[in-house]
Design brief:
There is one protein chain. The chain has 538 residues and is α+β, with helices and mostly antiparallel strands. The chain contains 17 helices and 21 strands. The strands form five sheets. Strands 1, 10, 11, 12, 13, 14, 15, 16, 17, 18 and 19 form an eleven-stranded mixed beta sheet that branches. A four-stranded antiparallel beta sheet has the order 5-6-8-7, covered by helices on one side. Helix 10 packs antiparallel against helix 12 and helix 11 packs antiparallel against helix 13. The longest helix has 18 residues. It is globular, with a radius of gyration of 23 Å. 54% of the residues are buried.
Length: 538
């Protein structure tokens, strides 16, 4: 998400997986390990093996059918308001119903969507956008007024919409429509990478009179609304008039299954055709076995711990540095993720543009960690680590890190949190927590997570001089000079930031053997991730 939610999500009243998939829990892990009978799993026109994940098998796309996709959900307070999208399930539903002006390609560069083109002036403080010809589901054209309304809604100072920090460079009072399909965005300062703003997570375009998002949502996306039961399911139907071509599927249904075992069992039992976020051990058990297709989105999931830098004990940067040195990253990767990924270096975005790859790889140094803790007066430190089974590897990495910390004289109490409310609980509460993030450009990660006014600032990193460096990077026209500013910012985060990034995990999906068109080179949160308008049933 993306990653995950900033809003409060109360617990679901009864067990979601039993409610939507009767009998799954009785089968338990027999099905999850492939030992259960697959008599109920009807394979239609199966062809190929795991190479079909990208649409390489099964011939030409086939029209028709309903695809059922299982995601972890957010409980009874889920919404289809795209500006509140925080969970991966929220983002997938929003993508089906709505469009953004741009979105991120597999290489994390901005690709045109509703914006047909964009052109800056010489000083990079005004950008002209030309909209493509597209219509909302009720037949009205998408206009500049809709775009400006959507952005002004997101920027409402009384709200905490996810994309607010990303849209901050825009002077929305001065920006104007230059015609039905033309917009001039006036910026508060020169911004060289403005297209990334247009692609920001959650920056969806809604009609200017949109109000009832959960009962009658109207977007311009590839699917139209049919029904929505928060915390349970959502059903959408093909939009025949979609500007990018009508989807192959007749219908798309999102079903909620918070337990990974329930998503796997539903996939094996033929109750869904797509299961989001599988554990590496599940992938290893089924890969190449022919029952289901495993799709690995390489290195697209940042894994780590978030330290709150505004409160004891992590308001002392010596304690944060000690924790960087406590981590044995190889052990965390192997133990929590079965080695399915690469180790991290306490910075987001490994392999992405502007990543500070020249910094030395940090390794465990318990002697140095003890010395730093002693200097900080925290020799017998006790701290609570909030975690949850909400994400693959969280509980395992928490236990491993607890044992690593004990070797440095630190006592960690691992506290299990609710899957339904974990992300909102840890955003402001606690001092240390398990954390992850999907893919986005490094500048987007900074704007949404590390600026003083960022709405999802989980480490409470509040530094005006850091904010100023970000604005300077945004305003720097020369790419090499801009890279130097981003490297300076990352050097500071590497030295004293609040994110202990120990790894980058493969994002793992599972599909039925008859599913085609699932892109395997699209990191989570990018354009082609969860893009069901390009998927078909063979």
């Amino acid at each position: 998400m993306h990653d995950e939610p900033a809003r409060h999500l109360p617990p679901v009243g009864d067990h979601p997986d039993e409610r939507h998939f009767p009998g799954l829990r009785r089968r338990g892990f027999l099905a999850a390990t492939g030992a259960a009978s697959l008599g109920a799993f009807a394979l239609t026109g199966c062809g190929g093996g795991d190479d079909t994940a990208e649409g390489g098998g099964g011939g030409a796309p086939r029209r028709g059918g309903r695809l059922r996709a299982a995601f972890a959900g957010g409980g009874a307070s889920e919404t289809l308001d795209p500006h509140l999208a925080n969970l991966f399930a929220d983002a997938a539903r929003a993508k089906a119903l709505y469009d953004k002006l741009a979105d991120y390609g597999a290489d994390l560069s901005a690709r045109p969507r509703l914006a047909e083109k964009w052109e800056p002036n010489k000083t990079l403080d005004r950008w002209r956008i030309t909209l493509r010809r597209a219509t909302f589901h009720d037949g009205r054209p998408v206009t500049a007024k809709d775009v400006l309304h959507s952005y002004r809604r997101i920027a409402d100072p009384k709200k905490a919409f996810r994309a607010k920090a990303s849209l901050e460079p825009i002077d929305l009072d001065a920006s104007r429509a230059t015609g039905d399909r033309g917009i001039e965005f006036v910026l508060k300062r020169p911004t060289a990478e403005f297209p990334n703003v247009l692609a920001a997570f959650g920056a969806y375009i809604v009609p200017e009179d949109a109000t009832d998002f959960d009962k009658k949502p109207i977007g311009s996306g590839p699917f139209r609304f049919v029904s929505f039961a928060p915390g349970r399911s959502a059903v959408f139907r093909r939009n025949e008039d979609y500007w990018d071509g009508a989807p192959h599927l007749d219908e798309l249904e999102f079903v909620v299954a918070n337990e990974e075992s329930a998503r796997v069992n539903a996939l094996l039992g033929g109750q869904v055709e797509y299961a989001h976020e599988l554990h590496p051990t599940t992938a290893r058990a089924h890969e190449g076995k022919g029952q289901i297709t495993i799709v690995r989105l390489r290195g697209s999931d940042m894994q780590g711990f978030a330290m709150k830098t505004d409160r004891p004990p992590f308001d002392d940067k010596r304690v944060r540095r000690a924790f960087f040195l406590i981590a044995d990253r190889e052990e965390l990767l192997d133990g929590a993720l079965s080695g399915a990924g690469v180790i991290g270096n306490d910075l987001f975005g490994k392999g992405y543009e502007y990543y500070a790859s020249g910094l030395p790889q940090r390794e465990q140094d318990l002697d140095r960690a003890r010395a730093l803790l002693k200097a900080a007066g925290a020799e017998k430190l006790k701290v609570t680590l909030d975690t949850s089974s909400v994400a693959a590897g969280f509980t395992e990495s928490a236990s491993i890190f607890r044992d690593q910390a004990a070797k440095a004289g630190v006592t960690i109490d691992v506290k299990m949190g609710s899957k339904d409310s974990y992300w909102s609980d840890i955003l402001d509460g606690g001092t240390l927590c398990s954390y992850r993030s999907g893919a986005m450009p490094i500048e987007a990660h900074i704007s949404q997570r590390l600026l003083t006014d960022s709405t999802t600032n989980a480490t409470k990193w509040h530094h005006k001089d850091f904010d100023a460096l970000y604005q300077r990077a945004q305003s720097t026209r020369d790419k090499s000079e801009r890279a130097a500013v981003y490297e300076r910012m990352q050097r500071r985060l590497y030295s004293e930031g609040g994110f202990l990034v120990w790894g980058f995990a493969d994002w793992i999906l599972g599909t039925a053997r008859d599913v085609r068109g699932v892109e395997s080179k699209a990191p989570a949160n990018t354009l082609d991730w969860a893009r069901f308008d390009k998927v078909w049933l063979a």
